[in-house]
Amino acid sequence: YLTRLLSGRMYSSMREGGKKVLSSSKSLSRFAKLTEEHMKGMVLPGTLFEEMGFHYFGPIDGHDVEEMVSVLNNLSQIKGPRLLHVVTQKGKGYELAEDDPCTYHGVSPFNLNTGLVSSSKKSTPTYTQVFGQWLCDMAAIDDRLVGITPAMREGSGLVAFSQAYPERYFDVAIAEQHAVTVAAGMACEGLKPVVAIYSTFLQRAYDQLIHDVAIQNLPVVFAIDRAGLVGADGPTHSGNYDLAYLRCIPNMVVMTPTHEDECRQMLYTAFQLDCPTAVRYPRGKGTGVLPVEAMTAIPLGRAEILREGLSGTAILLFGSLLAEAQEVADVLDATLVNMRFVKPLDQALLRQLA
Protein backbone atom coordinates (compact mmCIF):
# COMPACT_ATOMS: atom_id res chain seq x y z
CA TYR A 1 0.00 0.00 0.00
CA LEU A 2 2.79 2.42 0.94
CA THR A 3 4.58 1.82 -2.37
CA ARG A 4 1.37 2.46 -4.30
CA LEU A 5 0.83 5.65 -2.28
CA LEU A 6 4.37 6.95 -2.80
CA SER A 7 4.28 6.19 -6.52
CA GLY A 8 0.81 7.69 -6.98
CA ARG A 9 0.01 10.93 -8.77
CA MET A 10 -1.18 12.77 -5.63
CA TYR A 11 2.05 12.22 -3.68
CA SER A 12 4.20 12.97 -6.74
CA SER A 13 2.28 16.21 -7.43
CA MET A 14 2.56 17.31 -3.81
CA ARG A 15 6.26 16.46 -3.81
CA GLU A 16 6.99 18.40 -6.99
CA GLY A 17 4.83 21.32 -5.83
CA GLY A 18 6.64 21.47 -2.51
CA LYS A 19 10.01 21.49 -4.29
CA LYS A 20 8.93 24.47 -6.39
CA VAL A 21 7.68 26.41 -3.36
CA LEU A 22 10.87 25.76 -1.40
CA SER A 23 13.24 26.29 -4.31
CA SER A 24 13.65 29.96 -3.42
CA SER A 25 15.26 29.01 -0.10
CA LYS A 26 18.20 26.59 -0.23
CA SER A 27 18.13 26.00 3.52
CA LEU A 28 14.41 25.17 3.59
CA SER A 29 14.74 23.00 0.48
CA ARG A 30 17.61 21.03 2.03
CA PHE A 31 15.74 20.69 5.34
CA ALA A 32 12.66 19.34 3.54
CA LYS A 33 14.79 16.89 1.54
CA LEU A 34 16.53 15.57 4.65
CA THR A 35 13.21 15.29 6.48
CA GLU A 36 11.74 13.26 3.62
CA GLU A 37 14.80 10.99 3.49
CA HIS A 38 14.75 10.33 7.23
CA MET A 39 11.01 9.60 7.24
CA LYS A 40 11.31 7.22 4.29
CA GLY A 41 14.43 5.66 5.79
CA MET A 42 12.49 4.74 8.93
CA VAL A 43 10.07 2.52 7.00
CA LEU A 44 11.77 1.76 3.66
CA PRO A 45 15.08 -0.05 2.97
CA GLY A 46 16.03 1.95 -0.13
CA THR A 47 17.93 4.89 1.37
CA LEU A 48 21.13 3.75 -0.39
CA PHE A 49 19.46 4.05 -3.78
CA GLU A 50 17.96 7.42 -2.89
CA GLU A 51 21.48 8.64 -2.11
CA MET A 52 22.52 7.51 -5.60
CA GLY A 53 19.79 9.62 -7.18
CA PHE A 54 17.13 6.97 -7.72
CA HIS A 55 13.50 7.26 -6.68
CA TYR A 56 13.18 4.03 -4.68
CA PHE A 57 9.88 2.17 -4.36
CA GLY A 58 9.18 -1.09 -2.59
CA PRO A 59 9.56 -3.75 -1.61
CA ILE A 60 6.35 -5.11 -3.12
CA ASP A 61 4.95 -8.61 -3.67
CA GLY A 62 5.97 -9.66 -7.17
CA HIS A 63 3.24 -12.31 -7.24
CA ASP A 64 0.46 -9.73 -6.84
CA VAL A 65 -0.06 -8.93 -10.52
CA GLU A 66 -2.74 -6.28 -10.00
CA GLU A 67 -0.57 -4.42 -7.50
CA MET A 68 2.44 -4.67 -9.83
CA VAL A 69 0.48 -3.22 -12.76
CA SER A 70 -0.85 -0.39 -10.62
CA VAL A 71 2.59 0.56 -9.29
CA LEU A 72 4.25 0.31 -12.71
CA ASN A 73 1.60 2.58 -14.19
CA ASN A 74 2.26 5.09 -11.42
CA LEU A 75 6.02 4.92 -11.94
CA SER A 76 5.65 5.63 -15.64
CA GLN A 77 4.38 9.10 -14.69
CA ILE A 78 7.38 9.96 -12.50
CA LYS A 79 10.39 11.75 -13.93
CA GLY A 80 13.97 10.67 -13.34
CA PRO A 81 15.54 7.27 -12.60
CA ARG A 82 13.22 4.92 -10.72
CA LEU A 83 14.03 1.68 -8.91
CA LEU A 84 11.25 -0.76 -8.03
CA HIS A 85 12.15 -3.43 -5.46
CA VAL A 86 10.15 -6.60 -6.17
CA VAL A 87 10.21 -9.67 -3.90
CA THR A 88 9.32 -13.10 -5.30
CA GLN A 89 9.53 -16.70 -4.11
CA LYS A 90 11.28 -19.25 -6.32
CA GLY A 91 8.78 -21.87 -7.50
CA LYS A 92 5.79 -19.88 -6.25
CA GLY A 93 2.47 -21.57 -7.00
CA TYR A 94 3.84 -25.12 -7.32
CA GLU A 95 4.35 -26.71 -3.93
CA LEU A 96 7.01 -29.20 -5.01
CA ALA A 97 9.10 -26.41 -6.53
CA GLU A 98 8.59 -24.19 -3.48
CA ASP A 99 9.91 -26.99 -1.25
CA ASP A 100 12.87 -27.85 -3.52
CA PRO A 101 13.68 -24.80 -5.69
CA CYS A 102 17.17 -26.00 -6.65
CA THR A 103 15.95 -29.26 -8.20
CA TYR A 104 13.25 -27.44 -10.13
CA HIS A 105 15.49 -24.60 -11.30
CA GLY A 106 15.83 -25.91 -14.86
CA VAL A 107 13.84 -28.99 -15.83
CA SER A 108 12.61 -30.86 -18.88
CA PRO A 109 8.85 -31.52 -19.31
CA PHE A 110 7.38 -33.61 -16.48
CA ASN A 111 4.03 -34.65 -14.99
CA LEU A 112 2.77 -31.80 -12.79
CA ASN A 113 0.78 -34.18 -10.60
CA THR A 114 3.69 -36.46 -9.70
CA GLY A 115 6.59 -34.04 -10.08
CA LEU A 116 10.08 -35.11 -11.05
CA VAL A 117 10.59 -38.84 -10.58
CA SER A 118 14.10 -40.08 -9.84
CA SER A 119 15.22 -42.90 -12.08
CA SER A 120 15.92 -46.19 -10.31
CA LYS A 121 18.49 -47.08 -12.96
CA LYS A 122 22.12 -46.46 -12.15
CA SER A 123 23.28 -43.83 -14.60
CA THR A 124 26.65 -42.42 -15.54
CA PRO A 125 27.64 -39.14 -13.87
CA THR A 126 27.49 -35.80 -15.61
CA TYR A 127 30.67 -33.84 -16.24
CA THR A 128 29.53 -31.43 -13.53
CA GLN A 129 29.30 -34.30 -11.05
CA VAL A 130 32.72 -35.56 -12.10
CA PHE A 131 34.14 -32.13 -11.35
CA GLY A 132 32.37 -31.93 -7.98
CA GLN A 133 33.73 -35.31 -6.91
CA TRP A 134 37.25 -34.43 -8.07
CA LEU A 135 37.14 -31.17 -6.14
CA CYS A 136 36.28 -32.96 -2.89
CA ASP A 137 38.91 -35.64 -3.50
CA MET A 138 41.60 -33.07 -4.31
CA ALA A 139 40.68 -30.94 -1.30
CA ALA A 140 41.26 -33.94 0.95
CA ILE A 141 44.77 -34.33 -0.50
CA ASP A 142 45.87 -30.68 -0.66
CA ASP A 143 44.68 -28.15 1.92
CA ARG A 144 45.80 -25.26 -0.31
CA LEU A 145 42.81 -25.85 -2.58
CA VAL A 146 39.99 -23.30 -2.40
CA GLY A 147 36.81 -23.32 -4.47
CA ILE A 148 35.33 -20.14 -5.91
CA THR A 149 31.99 -19.65 -7.66
CA PRO A 150 29.98 -16.63 -8.83
CA ALA A 151 26.64 -17.74 -7.32
CA MET A 152 26.58 -21.08 -9.17
CA ARG A 153 27.02 -23.57 -6.32
CA GLU A 154 24.35 -26.02 -7.46
CA GLY A 155 24.81 -25.61 -11.21
CA SER A 156 28.59 -26.04 -11.03
CA GLY A 157 28.54 -29.07 -8.72
CA LEU A 158 29.92 -27.41 -5.58
CA VAL A 159 27.27 -28.43 -3.04
CA ALA A 160 29.23 -31.34 -1.54
CA PHE A 161 32.45 -29.31 -1.44
CA SER A 162 30.75 -26.35 0.26
CA GLN A 163 29.36 -28.66 2.93
CA ALA A 164 32.58 -30.61 3.49
CA TYR A 165 34.92 -27.59 3.37
CA PRO A 166 32.88 -24.47 4.22
CA GLU A 167 35.98 -22.50 5.23
CA ARG A 168 37.52 -23.13 1.80
CA TYR A 169 34.41 -22.35 -0.22
CA PHE A 170 33.84 -18.82 -1.53
CA ASP A 171 30.65 -17.71 -3.25
CA VAL A 172 31.33 -14.17 -4.49
CA ALA A 173 27.76 -13.69 -5.83
CA ILE A 174 26.99 -12.79 -9.44
CA ALA A 175 30.33 -11.05 -9.94
CA GLU A 176 32.48 -13.03 -12.34
CA GLN A 177 35.14 -10.32 -12.52
CA HIS A 178 35.47 -10.40 -8.74
CA ALA A 179 35.69 -14.21 -8.75
CA VAL A 180 38.72 -14.14 -11.05
CA THR A 181 40.43 -11.28 -9.20
CA VAL A 182 39.86 -12.97 -5.83
CA ALA A 183 41.38 -16.15 -7.26
CA ALA A 184 44.41 -14.17 -8.44
CA GLY A 185 44.90 -12.67 -4.99
CA MET A 186 44.64 -16.06 -3.32
CA ALA A 187 47.14 -17.55 -5.77
CA CYS A 188 49.57 -14.72 -4.98
CA GLU A 189 49.42 -15.79 -1.33
CA GLY A 190 50.21 -19.43 -2.04
CA LEU A 191 46.73 -20.94 -2.28
CA LYS A 192 45.51 -23.05 -5.22
CA PRO A 193 42.21 -21.54 -6.37
CA VAL A 194 39.74 -23.46 -8.51
CA VAL A 195 37.18 -21.20 -10.19
CA ALA A 196 34.04 -23.10 -11.18
CA ILE A 197 32.23 -21.10 -13.82
CA TYR A 198 30.07 -21.46 -16.91
CA SER A 199 31.81 -20.72 -20.20
CA THR A 200 29.33 -18.03 -21.19
CA PHE A 201 29.78 -16.17 -17.90
CA LEU A 202 33.58 -16.29 -17.92
CA GLN A 203 33.39 -13.85 -20.84
CA ARG A 204 32.43 -11.16 -18.34
CA ALA A 205 35.81 -11.50 -16.63
CA TYR A 206 38.03 -11.41 -19.71
CA ASP A 207 39.95 -8.33 -18.57
CA GLN A 208 40.65 -9.94 -15.18
CA LEU A 209 41.74 -13.17 -16.89
CA ILE A 210 44.42 -11.29 -18.77
CA HIS A 211 45.57 -8.61 -16.33
CA ASP A 212 45.13 -10.29 -12.94
CA VAL A 213 45.89 -13.94 -13.74
CA ALA A 214 47.68 -14.48 -17.06
CA ILE A 215 50.18 -11.61 -17.01
CA GLN A 216 51.33 -12.72 -13.54
CA ASN A 217 51.26 -16.37 -14.68
CA LEU A 218 49.34 -17.40 -11.57
CA PRO A 219 48.34 -21.05 -10.92
CA VAL A 220 44.56 -20.64 -11.10
CA VAL A 221 42.44 -23.55 -12.34
CA PHE A 222 39.32 -22.66 -14.33
CA ALA A 223 36.74 -25.47 -14.37
CA ILE A 224 34.65 -24.30 -17.31
CA ASP A 225 31.22 -25.90 -17.40
CA ARG A 226 28.64 -25.71 -20.23
CA ALA A 227 31.33 -25.44 -22.90
CA GLY A 228 29.95 -25.57 -26.43
CA LEU A 229 26.27 -25.76 -27.33
CA VAL A 230 24.08 -26.48 -24.31
CA GLY A 231 20.68 -27.34 -25.77
CA ALA A 232 18.03 -27.08 -23.06
CA ASP A 233 19.82 -24.31 -21.15
CA GLY A 234 19.18 -21.97 -24.07
CA PRO A 235 21.35 -19.66 -26.19
CA THR A 236 22.33 -17.35 -23.32
CA HIS A 237 24.14 -20.28 -21.67
CA SER A 238 25.95 -21.58 -24.75
CA GLY A 239 29.73 -21.56 -24.39
CA ASN A 240 30.55 -20.92 -28.03
CA TYR A 241 33.57 -18.69 -27.71
CA ASP A 242 35.90 -19.95 -24.97
CA LEU A 243 38.21 -21.86 -27.33
CA ALA A 244 38.95 -18.65 -29.23
CA TYR A 245 39.16 -16.20 -26.34
CA LEU A 246 41.22 -18.47 -24.06
CA ARG A 247 43.73 -19.75 -26.59
CA CYS A 248 45.10 -16.28 -27.35
CA ILE A 249 45.80 -15.43 -23.69
CA PRO A 250 49.50 -15.63 -22.73
CA ASN A 251 50.55 -18.44 -20.35
CA MET A 252 47.12 -20.10 -20.53
CA VAL A 253 46.83 -23.88 -20.90
CA VAL A 254 43.52 -25.17 -22.31
CA MET A 255 42.34 -28.79 -22.14
CA THR A 256 39.25 -30.55 -23.55
CA PRO A 257 38.37 -34.03 -22.25
CA THR A 258 36.81 -36.69 -24.48
CA HIS A 259 35.12 -38.56 -21.61
CA GLU A 260 34.46 -38.47 -17.88
CA ASP A 261 37.65 -40.12 -16.65
CA GLU A 262 39.80 -37.93 -18.86
CA CYS A 263 38.01 -34.92 -17.38
CA ARG A 264 39.04 -36.04 -13.89
CA GLN A 265 42.65 -36.61 -14.97
CA MET A 266 42.79 -33.24 -16.72
CA LEU A 267 41.52 -31.44 -13.63
CA TYR A 268 44.26 -33.16 -11.64
CA THR A 269 46.81 -32.19 -14.31
CA ALA A 270 45.65 -28.57 -14.20
CA PHE A 271 46.05 -28.50 -10.43
CA GLN A 272 49.66 -29.65 -10.73
CA LEU A 273 50.66 -26.98 -13.24
CA ASP A 274 52.21 -23.72 -12.09
CA CYS A 275 50.31 -21.54 -14.57
CA PRO A 276 46.71 -20.57 -15.39
CA THR A 277 44.87 -23.59 -16.76
CA ALA A 278 41.38 -24.16 -18.11
CA VAL A 279 39.54 -27.46 -18.40
CA ARG A 280 36.40 -27.03 -20.49
CA TYR A 281 33.65 -29.64 -20.49
CA PRO A 282 30.10 -29.80 -21.82
CA ARG A 283 26.70 -29.87 -20.19
CA GLY A 284 25.26 -33.27 -19.28
CA LYS A 285 26.68 -36.76 -19.43
CA GLY A 286 29.63 -38.14 -21.32
CA THR A 287 30.29 -41.38 -23.13
CA GLY A 288 30.04 -43.59 -20.06
CA VAL A 289 33.74 -43.99 -19.27
CA LEU A 290 33.52 -43.96 -15.50
CA PRO A 291 36.23 -42.00 -13.65
CA VAL A 292 38.81 -44.07 -11.81
CA GLU A 293 39.80 -43.04 -8.31
CA ALA A 294 43.53 -42.87 -9.05
CA MET A 295 44.68 -39.60 -10.58
CA THR A 296 47.57 -39.29 -13.02
CA ALA A 297 48.93 -36.14 -14.63
CA ILE A 298 48.81 -35.98 -18.43
CA PRO A 299 52.07 -34.83 -20.08
CA LEU A 300 51.71 -31.18 -21.05
CA GLY A 301 50.67 -30.71 -24.67
CA ARG A 302 50.71 -34.44 -25.46
CA ALA A 303 48.02 -35.84 -27.77
CA GLU A 304 47.20 -39.54 -28.20
CA ILE A 305 46.49 -41.58 -31.31
CA LEU A 306 43.27 -43.56 -30.84
CA ARG A 307 43.22 -45.20 -34.26
CA GLU A 308 45.81 -45.72 -36.98
CA GLY A 309 44.29 -45.34 -40.44
CA LEU A 310 45.62 -46.16 -43.90
CA SER A 311 43.74 -43.61 -46.01
CA GLY A 312 46.12 -40.73 -45.40
CA THR A 313 43.36 -38.78 -43.62
CA ALA A 314 43.66 -37.69 -40.01
CA ILE A 315 40.82 -36.55 -37.75
CA LEU A 316 41.85 -34.30 -34.87
CA LEU A 317 39.41 -34.56 -31.98
CA PHE A 318 39.00 -31.75 -29.46
CA GLY A 319 36.41 -32.52 -26.81
CA SER A 320 33.56 -34.91 -26.23
CA LEU A 321 32.45 -36.00 -29.74
CA LEU A 322 34.43 -39.21 -29.36
CA ALA A 323 31.76 -41.67 -30.52
CA GLU A 324 30.96 -39.60 -33.61
CA ALA A 325 34.65 -39.18 -34.46
CA GLN A 326 35.28 -42.92 -34.10
CA GLU A 327 32.39 -43.73 -36.42
CA VAL A 328 33.64 -41.35 -39.11
CA ALA A 329 37.21 -42.60 -38.72
CA ASP A 330 36.05 -46.18 -39.27
CA VAL A 331 34.17 -45.22 -42.42
CA LEU A 332 37.10 -43.25 -43.85
CA ASP A 333 39.80 -45.56 -42.49
CA ALA A 334 41.29 -42.39 -41.02
CA THR A 335 43.78 -41.85 -38.24
CA LEU A 336 41.96 -40.54 -35.15
CA VAL A 337 43.85 -38.31 -32.72
CA ASN A 338 42.58 -37.18 -29.34
CA MET A 339 44.36 -33.82 -29.18
CA ARG A 340 43.46 -33.27 -25.48
CA PHE A 341 45.21 -29.88 -25.43
CA VAL A 342 43.86 -26.90 -27.34
CA LYS A 343 46.92 -25.06 -26.07
CA PRO A 344 49.72 -26.01 -26.30
CA LEU A 345 49.20 -28.19 -29.36
CA ASP A 346 51.21 -31.36 -29.87
CA GLN A 347 53.30 -29.88 -32.68
CA ALA A 348 55.59 -32.90 -32.98
CA LEU A 349 52.65 -35.22 -33.65
CA LEU A 350 51.07 -32.77 -36.08
CA ARG A 351 54.31 -32.64 -38.08
CA GLN A 352 54.43 -36.43 -38.07
CA LEU A 353 50.86 -36.65 -39.39
CA ALA A 354 51.54 -34.03 -42.05
What's the SSE blueprint?
Layout (H helix, E strand, L loop, with lengths): L1 H6 L1 H14 L3 H18 L3 H5 L3 E7 L3 H11 L6 E6 L7 H5 L27 H15 L3 E5 L9 H6 L4 E3 L4 H13 L3 E7 H4 L3 H9 L6 E5 L16 H6 L5 E3 L4 H13 L4 E4 L23 E4 L6 E4 L4 H11 L2 E4 L2 E3 L3 H7 L1
Parallel strand pairs: 1-2, 3-4, 3-5, 5-6, 6-8, 7-8, 10-11
Antiparallel strand pairs: 7-12, 9-11
Helix pairs in contact: 7-13, 9-11
Report on this structure:
With 354 residues, the protein is of the alpha/beta class. It has 15 helices and 12 strands. The protein has 3 domains: 39-106, no CATH class; 127-280, 3-Layer(aba) Sandwich (Rossmann fold), CATH 3.40.50.970; 304-353, no CATH class. Helix content is 40%, strand content 16%. Helix 7 (127-141) packs parallel to helix 13 (260-272) and helix 9 runs parallel beside helix 11 (206-214). The longest helix has 18 residues, at 26-43. The mean pLDDT is 89.
